[in-house]
Amino acid sequence: MTPEIWLAAAIGLAVGATVAAVVMYSRRDAQDSSGTLIPHRTREVLSALQSGTMVVRRDRRSGFSNPTAAALGVARPDGALHPGVADLAEAAWAAGRPVEDEVVVNRGVLGVSTIVHVRVTPLGDELALAIANDNTEQRAAEQTRREFAVNVSHELKTPVGALSLLAETIQDNAEDTEMVRDFSKKIRKETRRLAKLIQEIIEISRIQGGESVLEYEVVPLEGVVAEVVEGAQIAAEARSLTLVADVAATPSVMGDRDLLVMALRNLVDNAINYSDTGSHVTVSLTAEGEVAELKVIDAGIGISKENQERIFERFYRADPARSRETGGTGLGLSIVKHVVLQHSGVVDVWSKPTVGSTFTVRLTTHQEEQ
After folding, report:
1. What is d(CA 29, CA 336) in angstroms, rounded to the nearest whole number?
2. What is the per-residue pLDDT across 63-113, written as a single tens digit (0 to 9) for each?
3. Strand partners of residue 362
4. Which residues lie closer than 8 Å to 320 by C-beta, 6 or more apart?
């Protein structure tokens, strides 16, 4: 071979080796880059967060996601992302600023939907940080508040409208003494109903606000039963009912005495209002182990199966006509439910039309320290 050929061969070998080295180092750099995309210490920090956290890549997958994100259903350990999160990341890159919105996640075989709030902040052109939190309960609470406001407005219009109409009628017929006397009685009835409605709205708002039980005390349930039965005797006698207390035990609970009295009084008032003349209403108190049971038993008109599922809803009336007659507001049982829940108890009902109803409140008893 001539020297020129040897020189050309040597140059070719050198170029080939250089290209191979560049390719090898490029691959190694890419591997190192992928391995250190999310440093170990950063992963530990993100994993400790209570919110769902994801590092979103340009290929609509996650470079890292913590266990909370998986629990919320917005990311999987294999890198898969909820489409809504990936869309928000693309919007954040396009806008060059944080973007936030809510995504609906359907989870489980029953397809239960949850609402997850996601905020995505771009971290350069290739990565973005997504923070997710479950907003399902907050949205449900907002919906409940809206429904409550609508229901209150509707319920207040009825007695206010009735009072206005009665007052106008009296004004136009002031000379008719008999009619004025009759309509005055109706005004008093509507006024009492309105006052009761306003008071119960205040009570249930206070209870649901979680601020009603500020200081717990030991409450003997025997005293609660005695106070309620004594206070309801006049109403029972007015309807020719027999109201009795059956106290077989004397347990105490930790709680708010006034709220417990109010809850039991609502149950007894309902039993009286929905019982036929001449029947019996019994308030029983028993205890077994660490559980105290308060029962209000009547032999009244009873409640149908479909109504039993809704009677603890606010403003729900199983018998609207009977409620108007007795001045019921539809809030009494809802108040009972929330008072019992605040005392970590449960309330349920057994009822059969024309046979009667039994409402049972179960509370954990207070055990005196030895």
Report:
1. 67
2. 889 988 888 888 988 889 999 999 999 999 999 999 999 888 886 544 567
3. 293, 346
4. none
Residues 6 or more apart in contact with residue 198 via CB below 8 angstroms: 156
Distances (CA, A) of 133 to 38, 100, 117, 171: 22, 11, 5, 60
Q: Where a domain ends, among 110, 134, 158?
A: 134
Domain-located, residue 275: yes
Q: Which two tokens stand for residue 342?
A: 């605040």
**CA angle centred on 185, ends 182 and 190, rounded to 5°:** 130
Contact in structure between 72 and 52 (CB atoms under 8 Å): yes
Are residues 266 and 128 part of one domain? Answer: no
Q: What is the CATH number of the domain that holds 193?
A: 1.10.287.130
Q: What is the pLDDT of residues 233-277, one digit of tens each?
A: 888 888 899 999 999 999 999 888 888 988 898 899 889 988 888
Domain around 203: 136-211
- Residue whose token pair is 């809510």: 102
- Each residue's pLDDT tens digit, 280-304: 999 999 999 889 999 999 988 888 8
Q: Is the pLDDT of residue 122 over 90?
A: yes
On whether the pTM is more than 0.85, the answer is no
On average, the pLDDT of the chain sits at 77
Contact 41, 112 (CB under 8 A): no
- Sheet strand arrangement including 52-57: 62-65, 52-57, 127-134, 112-123, 99-107
Residue 84, number of CB atoms within 10 A of its CB: 17
Total tally of structural domains belonging to the chain = 3
pLDDT at 321 over 50: no
